[in-house]
At2g23090-like zinc-binding domain-containing protein
Amino acid sequence: MGGGNAQKAAMARERKKAAAGKTANSQLKVNEAAKNTMCSVCRQTFLMTIRQKALEEHVTNKHAGKEFKACFPTFVTSE
Ligand SMILES: [Zn+2]
């Protein structure tokens, strides 16, 4: 008596957890798609919304002496 309900509740919790996992996965995909700025030298990816300043810092820190365009040839610089 009563045990059936508890089990049902537990199953509902599991289902909710599974649904949450799916949502997290699709969010991950969105994040992957948004990472479309990639360093040509070390293949590190950056969000497309990243600021040029941050990319310049990456070049300075990781590839001292390299041109900005050598690392990010497709990035539209705002000069
Ligand atoms: Zn790099």
About this structure: The chain has a mean pLDDT of 83. Residues 1-34 form one domain.
